[in-house]
Design goal:
CATH superfamily of the largest domain in chain B: NADH-ubiquinone oxidoreductase 51kDa subunit
CATH superfamily of the largest domain in chain A: Electron transport complex subunit B, putative Fe-S cluster
Strand order of the largest sheet of chain A: 1-4
Largest interface: A-B, 33 and 41 residues
Shape of chain A: elongated
Helix content of chain B: 25-40%
Oligomer: heterodimer
Order of helices and strands of chain B: EEEEEEEHHEHHEHEHEHEEHEEEHHHHH
Number of domains of chain A: 2
Number of helices of chain A: 5
Number of helices of chain B: 13
Helix content of chain A: 25-40%
Distance between the termini of chain B: 114 Å
Order of helices and strands of chain A: HHHHEHEEE
Radius of gyration of chain B: 28 Å
Distance between the termini of chain A: 67 Å
Structural class of chain A: mainly alpha
Number of strands of chain A: 4
Chain lengths: ~180, ~475
């Protein structure tokens, strides 16, 4: 009887020690799930999902406040990835948040621009270069195509230009005549 | 006698090689103009060094290698630069790319050539020479050779494999090169052996090229081993040939150099020889022109020669339905033949309905797994096909999509005529695009975070300033009554 109690309490102490050590040794900083979701999101920061940026949306998904199909720039590919990550079923994009569009880059018509800096303040990735009463221009490589600069512009001088295909970004197309067959 | 190994799978398509080996390598007349693309290799485009109106000498560098993975581009003959701009290039997209257009003056006046004596020189100097001479893999992958000739610290290359297998139907440019210029190839291989400090050189040639084998054996003597390998497509794939010759199977995600083997095409060895011994950059290459033409053959074509010009030399026949660059298994349909020969152009096949009958309409996959039996990379093509078709690229990657060498055996044997390789190419380019997007997204995330941080900091600084101000105002208020 005494042996059994000693063995069991010895085991309990030992395992408790292991668990205690593991919780310190393998402690994860921050919310790992949010990081993983955020890594999948396209970082356009366009807020079409209804949250003020990709990270807030990632937090909402992690907490179960948002669905995985609210991100039009990410499209179906990202929904697949989110479904895989979270172990839930894939669902098609929720059209009420917008349709996926071809990747575009904003362009400022510099002859119309009055240098009001409103677009600078709207740009989530600081991809617009300019100063008060100075002409503004888009840094094309940094632009995510979120379109957030278009609405604030008082003179409507910002346009979206779809990114043109060239040899370095050209992609093989899916063989078309097989669509629909299994 | 070397014991040969074998790889799984492979097919035996009709060879069609005899047609173009009847004549020796021909020198085509100088074309009216040469269109020289600046992106003829894996890696970054070369940076143009000339402007319209400049006169250049034969062999003069007109495009400088940009970044580490890149190659230089040279004027294939002397003449005048007509323009530097976007022209049609041999690419499956049909899109234009930056090219230099050269009008030959017919004088063929060379630059001053600077031969090197390689066997007494440091490999690093030789690598710089190869980079400046624009030497890239001429087997079709056009990867800059100087990088492959740098084994890296701590790595030892035991075996240097020269690839003269030329397994793809129709193509005979390496065969003819080996028959006629075996000496150059062997000399080049000796330079490569010196650069890699390789213990042995093994030259693999498929046994359907007896003349090439005997020419190479004669040139190699006792110094290198020329091995006849069984004819089976794709026995000339680098990994397949290495496996046949050495028994080493290169694992997924590793390179043959990790296992002490490096592999080069025979034509690359010849251009290494010319670049080092004579100082001649890559100005031309052997191109097989065959298919629906009267006199198929091999041409030593200047880089930039319009393909039309070469096809004209062979006497095109009625009923042509376009052309393929490369072989019928791995090549691609050219959007037009009004494009230049580039360093990757090993073969131009003029198509006709008789030679290339229209493929029947694809039928559903019946899961017969003949594609899996024929796959030389030991993949499961049927699974890759499902995932690629469903757009489930992550899963395709899990099934080792990137170990696919796009040899086309699976498409060749598919009883349902499904263009399987096209699905893999599609999936690969989608994955590359996603990776590019991921990079852009990471950059955007960093910029967004920095912006939020900046806004936060500005707010804090503003609050601090306000607090400071109100504190100052308070002390002023307190001190004022005392002054009164």
């Amino acid at each position: 009887m005494l042996d059994a109690i000693l063995v069991m309490s010895g085991l309990a102490l030992f395992l408790g020690g292991v668990l205690g050590y593991a919780s310190i040794r393998f402690h994860v900083q921050g919310n790992a799930l949010v990081e993983k979701i955020d890594a999948i999101l396209p970082q356009t920061q366009c807020a079409q999902c209804g949250f003020p940026g990709c990270r807030p949306y990632a937090e909402a998904i992690a907490e179960g406040r948002a669905d995985i199909n609210q991100c039009p720039p990410g499209g179906d590919a990202n929904i697949h990835k989110l479904a895989d990550l979270l172990g839930v079923e894939f669902k098609p994009l929720n059209a009420s948040h917008g349709e996926p569009k071809p990747k575009s880059v904003a362009f400022i018509d510099e002859s119309t621009c009055i240098g009001c800096t409103l677009c600078l303040q709207a740009c989530p990735v600081d991809a617009i270069c300019g100063a008060p009463k100075q002409m503004h221009t888009i840094i094309a490589q940094e632009c995510t195509g979120c379109e957030l600069c278009i609405a604030p512009c008082p003179v409507d001088c910002i346009f979206m230009i779809p990114v043109q295909e060239n040899i370095s970004n050209w992609k093989w197309k899916q063989p078309a005549y097989l669509k629909g067959t299994a | 006698m070397r014991a040969l190994h074998h790889f799984n799978g492979g097919v035996h398509p009709p060879e069609h090689k005899c047609e173009s080996t009847l004549r020796p390598i021909q020198q085509p007349p100088l074309p009216e103009k040469l269109v020289i693309p600046l992106h003829q290799h894996i890696g970054n485009s070369a940076k143009p060094l000339v402007e319209a109106g400049d006169t250049v000498l034969k062999g003069q560098m007109i495009g400088k290698a940009e970044g580490y993975v890149s190659g230089a581009i040279h004027a294939p003959t002397s003449g005048k630069i007509l323009s530097v701009g976007h022209e049609s290039v041999p690419h499956p997209s049909g899109l234009k790319d930056l090219c230099i257009v050269l009008e030959p003056d017919g004088l063929e006046s060379w630059i001053d050539l600077q031969p090197l004596d390689p066997l007494n020189m440091d490999p690093s100097t030789l690598r710089n020479r190869l980079r400046d001479a624009g030497v890239v893999g001429l087997g079709g992958a056009v990867f800059p050779s100087f990088i492959k000739l740098n084994p890296g610290t701590g790595k030892r290359i035991k075996t240097l494999v020269l690839n003269g297998a030329e397994c793809e139907p129709y193509i005979t440019c390496d065969d003819m090169l080996m028959r006629e210029r075996a000496r150059e190839i062997i000399e080049g291989a000796a330079v490569m052996r010196h650069m890699l400090h390789a213990e042995e050189v093994v030259i693999g040639i498929e046994d359907n090229k007896p003349q090439a084998i005997s020419a190479m054996r004669e040139a190699a003597g006792q110094s290198m081993e020329v091995v006849a390998v069984p004819t089976i497509y794709p026995g000339g794939g680098a990994k397949q040939l290495i496996r046949v010759l050495t028994g080493i199977e290169v694992p997924a995600g590793e390179r043959s150099t990790d296992l002490g083997v490096q592999c080069f095409n025979v034509a690359t060895a010849a251009s290494v020889h010319r670049a080092i011994r004579y100082g001649e950059p890559v100005l031309s290459r052997i191109v097989t022109v065959t298919g629906n033409v009267r006199n198929p053959g091999n041409f030593e074509a200047l880089i930039g020669t319009p393909m039309d010009h070469l096809i004209d030399q062979t006497g095109p026949l009625e009923g042509s339905t376009g052309a393929i660059m490369g072989g019928p298994m791995m090549g691609f349909d050219l959007p037009s033949t009004a494009v230049p020969v580039v360093k990757a152009t090993n073969c131009i096949i003029v198509k006709s309905d008789a030679l290339f009958p229209k493929k029947p309409q694809p039928m559903p996959c019946i899961r017969c797994a003949r594609c899996a039996e024929s796959c030389p990379a030991d993949l499961q093509p049927q699974e890759l096909y499902w995932f690629a078709k469903a757009g489930n690229f992550g899963k395709a990657q899990e099934y080792a999509l990137f170990d696919c060498i796009e040899c086309g055996c699976c498409s060749y044997v598919c009883p349902s005529h499904i263009p399987l390789v096209q699905f893999y190419r599609y999936a690969k380019s989608e994955i590359w695009a996603q990776e590019r997007e991921k990079k852009a997204a990471d950059l955007a995330r960093i910029r967004h975070d920095l912006r939020l941080e900046r806004i936060e900091r500005e707010k804090r600084e503003k609050a601090e300033r306000l607090a400071q101000k109100s504190a100052q105002a308070k002390t002023a208020e307190n001190s004022q009554p005392e002054q009164k």
